[in-house]
Amino acid sequence: MKSIVEELTRFDSLMEKMIALEKGEKIISDGLCYWGNEKKQKERIDLTLMGAVHGNEIIGLFILCELFEKILKGDLQPKINVAFILGNREALKQDVRFTEKDLNRSFQKNKKHASSHEERRAHEIESILEKTSFLVDFHQTQTPTHRAFFVLNYTRKSHLWARFLNPEIPIINFKEGMKREENITSTIFTNHAGGAGITLELGEKGFEEKQLEKALKVALQGINSFFEMEEKWSIVEKKETGFIEESFKHHHNFYCIVEKVEAPSEEGDLHHDIINFSPVKKGDALGVFEGEELVSLHDGVVIFPKYNKGRDKVKRDKKDPICSIASVVDHF
Ligand SMILES: [Zn+2]
Fold it and tell me: Cα separation of 227 and 265, whole Å?
């Protein structure tokens, strides 16, 4: 694997070539649009693909470079308006999640003042998300995972979007966190602006060929089959029931967060064999705190575990849950 500095140099040189294309245009710093849809030229962005919103989730940088290569070689010719955004270059260079504030908690509906690097960056990105119909924000997990998964805040449109991109990848629905004014994610911001935003958690942070392939497959489905998606949505939008509800019956991989597990104290830790998508039964031990077992209150899978010690120690806000439990639902 190339170093991040080398890959950023590659990104910059590819970005310049993309902007030099007749259909290419710089739209924000570290962001460009390929205007492939002549009908809607420069009014709407059909699809936004974003990566490295968290600086230590480096795969996003590689995904964007690969897509640029494909377009420059002529192997990929988008017929839609596609924006490509590199989320947080500063954090990437420093190999940290963020420099001052979590960028993915910095999007706001009404920005009064931006006091950190990430809030200023979020403001810049918002100008694109406001015009975006569909967003895929590529992320990686901080700790190991048994599988890749989509994360969304349920709307019919975002659910359809995830299913359309890859029905085999499970969906984790975070129902909460819908505060309108502050500290929202890129995907919630996009949903509020009328689009559909989803996150794809590809695997544990770092470079992995398999993750890159999975991401490219999703990106290419979004770009090449976009009109099919629009058509599907225009049908589903008018119906009370239909594809969305049907899809619960056919895919047993839609999960809702049913429990946010708080650490009872600072003294203790989750069991380190518990990783993303580890199955748990009600009553199973998740960890030990001050000599007492902490147990799951539900059947489901563990999502976003944060250990106190060991190689996967994650810097955690005290208010953050130590993990969440997600359960399969077959109706809504
Ligand atoms: Zn992330």
Answer: 51
Q: What is the pLDDT of residues 82-102, one digit of tens each?
A: 999 999 999 999 999 999 999
Domain spanning 4-250: CATH 3.40.630.10: yes
Residues with CB under 5 A from ligand 1 (ion): 54, 57, 139
Give the span between the Cα atoms of 187 and 203, in whole angstroms: 19
How close is the Cα of 56 to the center of ligand 1, in Å?
Answer: 8
The residues spanned by each domain of the chain are 4-250, 258-328
* Residues 298 and 258: beta-carbon distance below 8 Å: yes
Q: Is the dihedral of CA 189, 191, 197, 203 positive or negative?
A: positive
Distance from residue 239's CA to the centre of ligand 1 (Å): 34
**Residues ≥6 apart with Cβ < 8 Å to 167:** 247, 251
Cα angle vertex 232, ends 171, 77, to 5°? 90
191 residue type, one letter: N
Rounded to whole angstroms, the Cα distance separating 205 from 8 reads: 17
Antiparallel, parallel or unpaired: β 171-173 and 254-261: parallel
Ligand 1 centroid from CA 60, angstroms: 10
4-250 and 258-328 share one fold:
no
Q: What is the CATH number of domain 258-328?
A: 2.40.50
* Cα–Cα distance, 229 to 134 (Å, whole number): 10
Binned at pLDDT 50, 70 and 90, residue 303 comes out as very high
The Cβ of residue 182 has, within 10 Å, a number of other Cβ atoms equal to: 13
